[in-house]
Amino acid sequence: DTGVSQDPRHKITKRGQNVTFRCDPISEHNRLYWYRQTLGQGPEFLTYFQNEAQLEKSRLLSDRFSAERPKGSFSTLEIQRTEQGDSAMYLCASSRGTGVPYEQYFGPGTRLTVT
Amino acid sequence: AQRVTQPEKLLSVFKGAPVELKCNYSYSGSPELFWYVQYSRQRLQLLLRHISRESIKGFTADLNKGETSFHLKKPFAQEEDSAMYYCVSATGTYKYIFGTGTRLKVLA
Asked: What is the pLDDT of residue B94?
C-alpha cells in the first residue's frame, strides 16, 4: 500500500465546467475526509465519510459540490459549474477507528485552477 | 466556534538555536491536539499528537489547558526541520480544525 492517492494531481478548467476528483484511501481505513486549502491558509474541512455514509458536510460545501464514496472504498468529489473562487488545493485524508480522532493520512492533493 | 491560532506565519532561526512554534486553541471541551508537518514537495504528515506524549525528531509539545496552548518546541533546530507546521484541534470523529500554519526556516 503506497498510502492515500489522488487523481488528477493538477486540473485546469474553464469557468462553468464540471470537474471530478478521485481519492483512493488506505485500504483498511474506514474514515475518509475531503479538505480545501487556499494560499496562506490551513486545510478547511469539506466533508466526511464513515465507510460509505457521508456523515457530515461543511457549510463551505455549496450545492455545486457533491461527494460520494460507493462501497466504502474510493471517493469522488465533483464540482459543478466551477467558479474562479473554487481554485484551490483539494486534499483527501483517511484514517482508521471509531469514536475518537485518529491520525489522518493525507494524499498529495489535487490542485484546481479555474480560468 | 472551535478555532486554532498560530500567530506566526514565518519563523526564522539559526541552526542549533531553540525553536518554539506557538499554537492556541479555543474550545470549551477537551480536544485532541496534533501537530502536522509538510516538508517541501511532500504531503502533510503527522508529527506528533498530545495523547501519545512522544518526542518525534526531537520535538515535544506541552498542553497547557489554563492557557489553551499547545506550543511545539525543539531545543536545537536542524536545517532539515525547515517546513510548514500546522497545529490541529480535533473533536469527535471528523471535526479537525487546522491553524493557518507557521513556516519554519532554519538558517545555516
From this structure: 76
Are B82 and B105 in contact, with CB atoms under 8 Å apart? Answer: yes
CA distance B55 to chain A (A): 16
Chain segment A28-37, per-residue pLDDT in tens:
899 999 999 9
Interface residues on A facing B, Cβ-Cβ cutoff 8 A = 3-4, 31, 33, 40-45, 48, 50, 55-56, 91, 93, 98-101, 103-109
Cβ–Cβ gap B86/A33 under 8 Å: no
Give the count of Cβ contacts less than 8 A between chain A and B.
55
Q: What is the pLDDT of residue A20?
A: 98
Which residue in the set B9, B93, B98 is minimally distant from A43, CB to CB? Answer: B98
Give the other-Cβ count within 10 Å of B90's Cβ: 23
Question: With an 8 Å Cβ cutoff, are B94 and A91 in contact?
Answer: no
Estimate to the nearest angstrom the gap between the alpha carbon of B47 and the chain centroid: 8
pLDDT score at B54: 78
Q: Alpha helix locations (H) across chain B?
A: none
The CA distance from B12 to the nearest CA of chain A, in Å, is 17
**In this structure, what C-alpha cell is assigned to residue A112?**
484546481
pLDDT of residue A1: 54
Positions in chain B whose pLDDT score sits under 70: none
Collect the ranges in chain A with pLDDT lower than 70: 1, 99
